[in-house]
Amino acid sequence: GSTIGILGGGQLGRMLSVAASRLGYKTHIFEPGANPPAGQVADQVTTAAYEDEAALLAFADAVDVITYEFENIPTSALDTLEAHRPIRPGREALRVSQDRITEKEFLSDLGLTVAPFAAVQTKEELDAALDTIGTPSILKTRRFGYDGKGQARLNSQADAPAALADMAGSPSVLEGFVNFSHEVSVIAARGITGEVACFDPGENVHVGGILRTTTIPANLPGSMRMDAVLMASKILNALDYVGVMGVELFVTKDGLVVNEIAPRVHNSGHWTQNGCAVDQFEQHIRAVVGLSLGDGKRHSDVVMENLIGDDMDKVPALLSEPHVAVHLYGKAEAKAGRKMGHVNRVTPNA
Ligand code: ATP
Ligand code: MG
Ligand code: MG
Protein backbone atom coordinates (compact mmCIF):
# COMPACT_ATOMS: atom_id res chain seq x y z
CA GLY A 1 0.00 0.00 0.00
CA SER A 2 1.01 3.62 -0.24
CA THR A 3 1.93 6.08 2.49
CA ILE A 4 0.05 9.20 3.52
CA GLY A 5 2.11 12.06 4.94
CA ILE A 6 0.37 14.10 7.63
CA LEU A 7 1.61 17.52 8.75
CA GLY A 8 0.88 17.86 12.45
CA GLY A 9 0.84 15.19 15.14
CA GLY A 10 -2.01 16.24 17.41
CA GLN A 11 -5.27 14.38 18.04
CA LEU A 12 -6.59 15.13 14.56
CA GLY A 13 -3.47 13.64 12.99
CA ARG A 14 -3.84 10.67 15.31
CA MET A 15 -7.43 9.96 14.31
CA LEU A 16 -6.55 10.46 10.62
CA SER A 17 -3.77 7.88 11.04
CA VAL A 18 -6.17 5.36 12.56
CA ALA A 19 -8.61 5.85 9.69
CA ALA A 20 -5.83 5.53 7.10
CA SER A 21 -4.59 2.37 8.74
CA ARG A 22 -8.08 0.84 8.61
CA LEU A 23 -8.06 1.40 4.86
CA GLY A 24 -4.68 -0.30 4.51
CA TYR A 25 -2.46 2.77 4.19
CA LYS A 26 0.67 3.62 6.11
CA THR A 27 1.04 7.04 7.70
CA HIS A 28 4.05 9.25 8.31
CA ILE A 29 3.68 12.23 10.66
CA PHE A 30 5.75 15.42 10.38
CA GLU A 31 5.69 17.26 13.70
CA PRO A 32 8.13 19.68 15.37
CA GLY A 33 7.06 18.81 18.95
CA ALA A 34 8.29 15.77 20.86
CA ASN A 35 6.03 12.76 21.58
CA PRO A 36 3.03 13.82 19.50
CA PRO A 37 -0.29 11.99 20.12
CA ALA A 38 -0.31 10.85 16.48
CA GLY A 39 3.15 9.34 16.88
CA GLN A 40 1.69 6.55 19.02
CA VAL A 41 -0.39 5.21 16.13
CA ALA A 42 1.44 6.30 12.96
CA ASP A 43 3.90 4.05 11.12
CA GLN A 44 6.60 6.70 11.12
CA VAL A 45 7.30 10.11 12.65
CA THR A 46 9.68 12.84 11.56
CA THR A 47 10.49 15.23 14.40
CA ALA A 48 11.75 18.40 12.73
CA ALA A 49 10.99 22.08 12.31
CA TYR A 50 9.07 23.43 9.31
CA GLU A 51 12.20 25.43 8.49
CA ASP A 52 14.27 22.24 8.11
CA GLU A 53 14.47 21.94 4.34
CA ALA A 54 16.34 18.62 4.35
CA ALA A 55 13.82 17.02 6.70
CA LEU A 56 10.93 18.29 4.57
CA LEU A 57 12.48 16.81 1.42
CA ALA A 58 13.14 13.45 3.07
CA PHE A 59 9.54 13.42 4.35
CA ALA A 60 8.17 14.23 0.89
CA ASP A 61 10.29 11.45 -0.61
CA ALA A 62 8.95 8.93 1.88
CA VAL A 63 5.23 9.57 1.20
CA ASP A 64 2.85 9.47 -1.77
CA VAL A 65 0.47 12.28 -0.85
CA ILE A 66 0.51 14.95 1.85
CA THR A 67 -2.34 16.19 3.98
CA TYR A 68 -2.47 18.17 7.23
CA GLU A 69 -4.32 18.51 10.51
CA PHE A 70 -3.92 22.28 10.95
CA GLU A 71 -4.00 25.27 8.64
CA ASN A 72 -1.06 27.33 9.89
CA ILE A 73 1.72 25.53 8.05
CA PRO A 74 4.41 28.03 6.99
CA THR A 75 4.24 28.97 3.30
CA SER A 76 7.93 28.16 2.75
CA ALA A 77 7.39 24.57 3.92
CA LEU A 78 4.37 24.21 1.64
CA ASP A 79 6.42 25.48 -1.32
CA THR A 80 9.13 22.89 -0.66
CA LEU A 81 6.68 20.01 -0.20
CA GLU A 82 4.42 20.92 -3.09
CA ALA A 83 7.31 20.74 -5.56
CA HIS A 84 7.58 17.01 -4.76
CA ARG A 85 4.21 15.62 -3.76
CA PRO A 86 0.56 16.61 -4.06
CA ILE A 87 -0.80 18.47 -1.04
CA ARG A 88 -4.50 17.87 -0.42
CA PRO A 89 -6.53 19.94 0.36
CA GLY A 90 -4.68 22.34 -1.97
CA ARG A 91 -2.87 25.61 -1.44
CA GLU A 92 -5.82 27.87 -2.21
CA ALA A 93 -7.75 26.57 0.80
CA LEU A 94 -4.74 27.25 3.02
CA ARG A 95 -4.10 30.70 1.57
CA VAL A 96 -7.71 31.73 2.12
CA SER A 97 -8.09 30.30 5.62
CA GLN A 98 -4.73 31.29 7.14
CA ASP A 99 -5.87 34.90 7.42
CA ARG A 100 -9.27 35.98 8.76
CA ILE A 101 -9.41 38.92 6.30
CA THR A 102 -8.74 36.87 3.14
CA GLU A 103 -11.19 34.30 4.49
CA LYS A 104 -13.99 36.82 5.01
CA GLU A 105 -13.35 38.47 1.62
CA PHE A 106 -13.45 35.07 -0.08
CA LEU A 107 -16.72 34.16 1.65
CA SER A 108 -18.45 37.46 0.93
CA ASP A 109 -17.30 37.34 -2.71
CA LEU A 110 -19.16 34.01 -2.89
CA GLY A 111 -22.30 35.84 -1.82
CA LEU A 112 -22.29 34.37 1.68
CA THR A 113 -23.00 36.49 4.75
CA VAL A 114 -20.19 37.15 7.22
CA ALA A 115 -20.00 39.48 10.24
CA PRO A 116 -19.21 43.12 9.39
CA PHE A 117 -15.40 43.35 9.50
CA ALA A 118 -12.44 45.67 9.04
CA ALA A 119 -8.67 45.20 9.09
CA VAL A 120 -7.08 46.93 12.09
CA GLN A 121 -3.53 47.37 13.31
CA THR A 122 -3.22 50.88 14.72
CA LYS A 123 -5.24 52.96 17.17
CA GLU A 124 -6.42 55.15 14.26
CA GLU A 125 -7.59 52.12 12.27
CA LEU A 126 -9.43 50.74 15.29
CA ASP A 127 -11.17 54.09 15.88
CA ALA A 128 -12.20 54.23 12.21
CA ALA A 129 -13.43 50.61 12.31
CA LEU A 130 -15.44 51.28 15.48
CA ASP A 131 -17.10 54.26 13.75
CA THR A 132 -18.61 51.93 11.14
CA ILE A 133 -18.91 48.61 13.00
CA GLY A 134 -19.61 49.90 16.51
CA THR A 135 -19.94 47.77 19.64
CA PRO A 136 -20.40 45.09 20.79
CA SER A 137 -17.63 43.77 18.60
CA ILE A 138 -14.66 41.42 18.77
CA LEU A 139 -11.06 42.18 17.90
CA LYS A 140 -9.22 39.05 16.69
CA THR A 141 -5.70 38.43 15.42
CA ARG A 142 -5.83 37.81 11.67
CA ARG A 143 -3.63 34.71 11.94
CA PHE A 144 -2.89 31.78 14.28
CA GLY A 145 -5.93 32.13 16.58
CA TYR A 146 -7.68 28.98 17.84
CA ASP A 147 -9.88 28.00 20.79
CA GLY A 148 -10.78 31.69 21.16
CA LYS A 149 -7.17 32.70 21.79
CA GLY A 150 -6.08 36.07 20.42
CA GLN A 151 -9.51 37.64 20.80
CA ALA A 152 -10.81 40.59 22.82
CA ARG A 153 -14.43 41.58 23.24
CA LEU A 154 -15.37 45.29 23.04
CA ASN A 155 -18.57 46.17 24.83
CA SER A 156 -18.03 49.92 24.40
CA GLN A 157 -15.54 52.33 22.84
CA ALA A 158 -13.83 52.51 26.23
CA ASP A 159 -12.58 48.90 25.77
CA ALA A 160 -10.59 49.88 22.66
CA PRO A 161 -7.16 50.58 24.22
CA ALA A 162 -7.12 47.36 26.25
CA ALA A 163 -8.32 45.28 23.29
CA LEU A 164 -5.62 46.75 21.06
CA ALA A 165 -2.99 46.07 23.74
CA ASP A 166 -4.17 42.41 23.85
CA MET A 167 -3.34 42.08 20.14
CA ALA A 168 0.27 43.13 20.91
CA GLY A 169 0.75 44.76 17.51
CA SER A 170 -0.46 41.74 15.48
CA PRO A 171 -2.46 42.51 12.35
CA SER A 172 -6.07 42.13 13.50
CA VAL A 173 -9.66 42.21 12.39
CA LEU A 174 -12.56 43.96 14.11
CA GLU A 175 -15.76 41.93 13.74
CA GLY A 176 -19.23 43.12 14.57
CA PHE A 177 -20.83 40.90 17.21
CA VAL A 178 -23.35 38.62 15.53
CA ASN A 179 -26.55 38.31 17.51
CA PHE A 180 -26.95 34.58 17.01
CA SER A 181 -29.42 32.25 18.67
CA HIS A 182 -27.01 29.32 18.40
CA GLU A 183 -24.03 27.98 16.48
CA VAL A 184 -23.93 25.08 14.04
CA SER A 185 -21.31 23.57 11.78
CA VAL A 186 -21.30 21.51 8.64
CA ILE A 187 -18.58 18.96 8.05
CA ALA A 188 -18.31 18.67 4.29
CA ALA A 189 -16.18 16.43 2.07
CA ARG A 190 -15.25 16.82 -1.57
CA GLY A 191 -13.68 14.02 -3.57
CA ILE A 192 -11.01 14.20 -6.23
CA THR A 193 -13.62 14.05 -8.99
CA GLY A 194 -15.64 16.86 -7.43
CA GLU A 195 -18.45 15.02 -5.67
CA VAL A 196 -19.55 16.64 -2.39
CA ALA A 197 -20.94 14.84 0.65
CA CYS A 198 -22.00 16.69 3.80
CA PHE A 199 -22.58 15.27 7.24
CA ASP A 200 -25.68 16.43 9.07
CA PRO A 201 -25.18 19.87 10.69
CA GLY A 202 -24.31 19.75 14.39
CA GLU A 203 -25.12 22.31 17.05
CA ASN A 204 -22.08 23.61 18.92
CA VAL A 205 -21.77 25.05 22.41
CA HIS A 206 -18.54 26.87 23.30
CA VAL A 207 -17.41 27.62 26.85
CA GLY A 208 -14.59 30.11 27.29
CA GLY A 209 -13.94 30.07 23.54
CA ILE A 210 -13.42 26.28 23.47
CA LEU A 211 -15.86 23.82 21.91
CA ARG A 212 -17.67 22.00 24.71
CA THR A 213 -20.39 19.94 23.02
CA THR A 214 -21.74 19.15 19.57
CA THR A 215 -25.31 17.85 19.41
CA ILE A 216 -26.78 16.02 16.42
CA PRO A 217 -29.33 16.74 15.08
CA ALA A 218 -28.95 20.52 15.37
CA ASN A 219 -31.97 22.64 16.12
CA LEU A 220 -32.50 23.94 12.59
CA PRO A 221 -35.57 24.33 10.40
CA GLY A 222 -35.41 22.25 7.21
CA SER A 223 -34.81 25.29 4.99
CA MET A 224 -31.76 26.36 7.02
CA ARG A 225 -30.47 22.79 7.06
CA MET A 226 -30.57 22.91 3.27
CA ASP A 227 -28.93 26.38 3.23
CA ALA A 228 -26.11 25.16 5.46
CA VAL A 229 -25.32 22.27 3.14
CA LEU A 230 -25.57 24.42 -0.01
CA MET A 231 -23.27 27.06 1.52
CA ALA A 232 -20.68 24.45 2.42
CA SER A 233 -20.85 22.94 -1.08
CA LYS A 234 -20.39 26.36 -2.65
CA ILE A 235 -17.27 26.95 -0.56
CA LEU A 236 -15.69 23.57 -1.40
CA ASN A 237 -16.46 23.88 -5.10
CA ALA A 238 -15.03 27.41 -5.28
CA LEU A 239 -11.75 26.14 -3.81
CA ASP A 240 -11.66 23.01 -6.00
CA TYR A 241 -11.27 21.41 -2.60
CA VAL A 242 -10.21 17.82 -1.93
CA GLY A 243 -10.77 16.55 1.60
CA VAL A 244 -12.92 17.39 4.62
CA MET A 245 -13.68 20.92 5.77
CA GLY A 246 -15.41 22.32 8.85
CA VAL A 247 -17.72 25.27 8.19
CA GLU A 248 -18.80 27.15 11.34
CA LEU A 249 -22.10 29.02 11.10
CA PHE A 250 -24.09 31.40 13.30
CA VAL A 251 -27.86 30.94 13.24
CA THR A 252 -29.67 34.30 13.25
CA LYS A 253 -33.27 35.35 12.63
CA ASP A 254 -32.13 36.63 9.20
CA GLY A 255 -30.41 33.38 8.22
CA LEU A 256 -27.00 31.79 8.47
CA VAL A 257 -23.80 33.82 8.91
CA VAL A 258 -20.46 32.12 8.22
CA ASN A 259 -18.09 32.46 11.19
CA GLU A 260 -15.03 30.68 9.85
CA ILE A 261 -13.87 27.71 7.83
CA ALA A 262 -11.25 25.11 8.76
CA PRO A 263 -9.60 23.24 5.84
CA ARG A 264 -9.29 19.98 7.75
CA VAL A 265 -11.17 17.54 9.91
CA HIS A 266 -12.88 19.44 12.69
CA ASN A 267 -13.59 18.95 16.39
CA SER A 268 -17.31 19.47 15.75
CA GLY A 269 -17.18 16.44 13.41
CA HIS A 270 -16.00 13.93 16.02
CA TRP A 271 -19.58 12.74 16.52
CA THR A 272 -19.38 11.06 13.08
CA GLN A 273 -17.13 8.36 14.58
CA ASN A 274 -20.14 6.84 16.28
CA GLY A 275 -23.02 8.33 14.31
CA CYS A 276 -22.19 7.30 10.73
CA ALA A 277 -20.90 4.25 8.88
CA VAL A 278 -18.08 6.39 7.45
CA ASP A 279 -16.72 9.12 9.74
CA GLN A 280 -15.02 12.42 8.90
CA PHE A 281 -11.52 10.93 9.27
CA GLU A 282 -12.16 8.08 6.84
CA GLN A 283 -13.93 10.49 4.48
CA HIS A 284 -10.88 12.77 4.50
CA ILE A 285 -8.47 9.91 3.85
CA ARG A 286 -10.66 8.59 1.03
CA ALA A 287 -10.70 12.03 -0.58
CA VAL A 288 -6.96 12.73 -0.36
CA VAL A 289 -5.95 9.34 -1.77
CA GLY A 290 -8.52 9.61 -4.57
CA LEU A 291 -10.99 6.94 -3.46
CA SER A 292 -14.71 7.60 -3.78
CA LEU A 293 -16.41 9.15 -0.77
CA GLY A 294 -18.29 6.92 1.64
CA ASP A 295 -21.79 6.99 3.06
CA GLY A 296 -21.84 9.71 5.73
CA LYS A 297 -25.54 9.36 6.44
CA ARG A 298 -26.33 9.55 10.12
CA HIS A 299 -27.70 6.37 11.76
CA SER A 300 -27.89 7.75 15.31
CA ASP A 301 -28.40 10.89 17.33
CA VAL A 302 -25.16 11.83 19.08
CA VAL A 303 -23.96 14.25 21.71
CA MET A 304 -20.19 14.75 21.53
CA GLU A 305 -18.57 16.19 24.63
CA ASN A 306 -14.93 17.24 24.77
CA LEU A 307 -12.79 16.07 27.69
CA ILE A 308 -10.71 19.13 28.58
CA GLY A 309 -8.06 19.23 31.32
CA ASP A 310 -9.57 17.92 34.58
CA ASP A 311 -12.46 16.30 32.72
CA MET A 312 -10.13 13.31 32.53
CA ASP A 313 -11.17 12.55 36.13
CA LYS A 314 -14.62 11.64 34.74
CA VAL A 315 -13.25 8.89 32.48
CA PRO A 316 -13.68 5.94 34.89
CA ALA A 317 -17.38 6.80 35.30
CA LEU A 318 -17.85 7.45 31.58
CA LEU A 319 -16.39 4.05 30.74
CA SER A 320 -19.27 2.34 32.49
CA GLU A 321 -22.07 4.49 31.05
CA PRO A 322 -24.26 2.76 28.46
CA HIS A 323 -24.15 3.98 24.83
CA VAL A 324 -21.02 6.05 25.42
CA ALA A 325 -17.91 5.76 23.26
CA VAL A 326 -14.77 7.13 24.91
CA HIS A 327 -11.99 8.48 22.68
CA LEU A 328 -8.68 9.44 24.34
CA TYR A 329 -5.70 11.10 22.66
CA GLY A 330 -2.87 9.62 24.71
CA LYS A 331 -1.61 13.00 25.96
CA ALA A 332 0.61 12.74 29.01
CA GLU A 333 -0.35 15.84 30.95
CA ALA A 334 -3.92 17.06 31.56
CA LYS A 335 -3.30 20.83 31.52
CA ALA A 336 -6.17 23.32 31.91
CA GLY A 337 -7.74 24.03 28.51
CA ARG A 338 -6.01 21.09 26.82
CA LYS A 339 -8.20 18.78 24.78
CA MET A 340 -7.50 15.29 26.19
CA GLY A 341 -10.26 13.28 24.52
CA HIS A 342 -13.98 13.26 23.83
CA VAL A 343 -17.01 11.07 24.34
CA ASN A 344 -19.86 10.34 21.97
CA ARG A 345 -23.22 9.61 23.61
CA VAL A 346 -25.20 7.65 21.06
CA THR A 347 -28.95 7.16 20.63
CA PRO A 348 -29.72 4.93 17.65
CA ASN A 349 -32.51 6.26 15.43
CA ALA A 350 -35.74 4.32 15.41
P1 ATP B 1 -11.67 27.64 16.74
O1 ATP B 1 -11.08 26.88 17.87
O2 ATP B 1 -13.08 27.24 16.38
O3 ATP B 1 -10.78 27.77 15.51
P2 ATP B 1 -11.21 30.50 16.98
O4 ATP B 1 -10.20 30.85 18.00
O5 ATP B 1 -10.82 30.57 15.55
O6 ATP B 1 -11.88 29.12 17.33
P3 ATP B 1 -13.76 31.84 16.50
O7 ATP B 1 -14.42 30.65 15.95
O8 ATP B 1 -13.52 32.99 15.61
O9 ATP B 1 -12.39 31.50 17.26
O10 ATP B 1 -14.56 32.34 17.77
C1 ATP B 1 -14.78 31.49 18.87
C2 ATP B 1 -16.20 31.67 19.36
O11 ATP B 1 -16.41 33.05 19.75
C3 ATP B 1 -17.25 31.44 18.27
O12 ATP B 1 -17.54 30.07 18.12
C4 ATP B 1 -18.41 32.25 18.85
O13 ATP B 1 -19.00 31.57 19.94
C5 ATP B 1 -17.70 33.49 19.38
N1 ATP B 1 -17.59 34.51 18.32
C6 ATP B 1 -16.56 34.67 17.47
N2 ATP B 1 -16.78 35.67 16.58
C7 ATP B 1 -18.00 36.16 16.86
C8 ATP B 1 -18.82 37.22 16.34
N3 ATP B 1 -18.42 38.00 15.31
N4 ATP B 1 -20.03 37.43 16.90
C9 ATP B 1 -20.45 36.68 17.95
N5 ATP B 1 -19.74 35.68 18.50
C10 ATP B 1 -18.53 35.42 17.98
MG1 MG C 1 -10.68 29.14 14.13
MG1 MG D 1 -14.17 28.74 15.51
From TrEMBL:
<dbReference type="GO" id="GO:0006189">
    <property type="term" value="P:'de novo' IMP biosynthetic process"/>
</dbReference>
<keyword id="KW-0436">Ligase</keyword>
<dbReference type="GO" id="GO:0005524">
    <property type="term" value="F:ATP binding"/>
</dbReference>
<dbReference type="Pfam" id="PF02222">
    <property type="entry name" value="ATP-grasp"/>
</dbReference>
<keyword id="KW-0067">ATP-binding</keyword>
<feature type="binding site">
    <location>
        <begin position="145"/>
        <end position="151"/>
    </location>
    <ligand>
        <name>ATP</name>
    </ligand>
</feature>
<keyword id="KW-0547">Nucleotide-binding</keyword>
<dbReference type="InterPro" id="IPR040686">
    <property type="entry name" value="PurK_C"/>
</dbReference>
<dbReference type="Pfam" id="PF22660">
    <property type="entry name" value="RS_preATP-grasp-like"/>
</dbReference>
<protein>
    <recommendedName>
        <fullName>N5-carboxyaminoimidazole ribonucleotide synthase</fullName>
        <ecNumber>6.3.4.18</ecNumber>
    </recommendedName>
</protein>
<keyword id="KW-0658">Purine biosynthesis</keyword>
<feature type="domain" description="ATP-grasp">
    <location>
        <begin position="104"/>
        <end position="289"/>
    </location>
</feature>
<dbReference type="InterPro" id="IPR013815">
    <property type="entry name" value="ATP_grasp_subdomain_1"/>
</dbReference>
<comment type="similarity">
    <text>Belongs to the PurK/PurT family.</text>
</comment>
<dbReference type="InterPro" id="IPR005875">
    <property type="entry name" value="PurK"/>
</dbReference>
<dbReference type="InterPro" id="IPR016185">
    <property type="entry name" value="PreATP-grasp_dom_sf"/>
</dbReference>
<dbReference type="Pfam" id="PF17769">
    <property type="entry name" value="PurK_C"/>
</dbReference>
<feature type="binding site">
    <location>
        <begin position="259"/>
        <end position="260"/>
    </location>
    <ligand>
        <name>ATP</name>
    </ligand>
</feature>
<comment type="function">
    <text>Catalyzes the ATP-dependent conversion of 5-aminoimidazole ribonucleotide (AIR) and HCO(3)- to N5-carboxyaminoimidazole ribonucleotide (N5-CAIR).</text>
</comment>
<feature type="binding site">
    <location>
        <position position="183"/>
    </location>
    <ligand>
        <name>ATP</name>
    </ligand>
</feature>
<dbReference type="InterPro" id="IPR054350">
    <property type="entry name" value="PurT/PurK_preATP-grasp"/>
</dbReference>
<comment type="pathway">
    <text>Purine metabolism; IMP biosynthesis via de novo pathway; 5-amino-1-(5-phospho-D-ribosyl)imidazole-4-carboxylate from 5-amino-1-(5-phospho-D-ribosyl)imidazole (N5-CAIR route): step 1/2.</text>
</comment>
<comment type="subunit">
    <text>Homodimer.</text>
</comment>
<dbReference type="InterPro" id="IPR011761">
    <property type="entry name" value="ATP-grasp"/>
</dbReference>
<dbReference type="GO" id="GO:0005829">
    <property type="term" value="C:cytosol"/>
</dbReference>
<dbReference type="InterPro" id="IPR003135">
    <property type="entry name" value="ATP-grasp_carboxylate-amine"/>
</dbReference>
<feature type="binding site">
    <location>
        <position position="140"/>
    </location>
    <ligand>
        <name>ATP</name>
    </ligand>
</feature>
<dbReference type="GO" id="GO:0004638">
    <property type="term" value="F:phosphoribosylaminoimidazole carboxylase activity"/>
</dbReference>
<dbReference type="GO" id="GO:0046872">
    <property type="term" value="F:metal ion binding"/>
</dbReference>
<comment type="function">
    <text>Catalyzes the ATP-dependent conversion of 5-aminoimidazole ribonucleotide (AIR) and HCO(3)(-) to N5-carboxyaminoimidazole ribonucleotide (N5-CAIR).</text>
</comment>
<feature type="binding site">
    <location>
        <position position="206"/>
    </location>
    <ligand>
        <name>ATP</name>
    </ligand>
</feature>
<feature type="binding site">
    <location>
        <begin position="175"/>
        <end position="178"/>
    </location>
    <ligand>
        <name>ATP</name>
    </ligand>
</feature>
<dbReference type="InterPro" id="IPR011054">
    <property type="entry name" value="Rudment_hybrid_motif"/>
</dbReference>
<feature type="binding site">
    <location>
        <position position="100"/>
    </location>
    <ligand>
        <name>ATP</name>
    </ligand>
</feature>
<dbReference type="GO" id="GO:0034028">
    <property type="term" value="F:5-(carboxyamino)imidazole ribonucleotide synthase activity"/>
</dbReference>
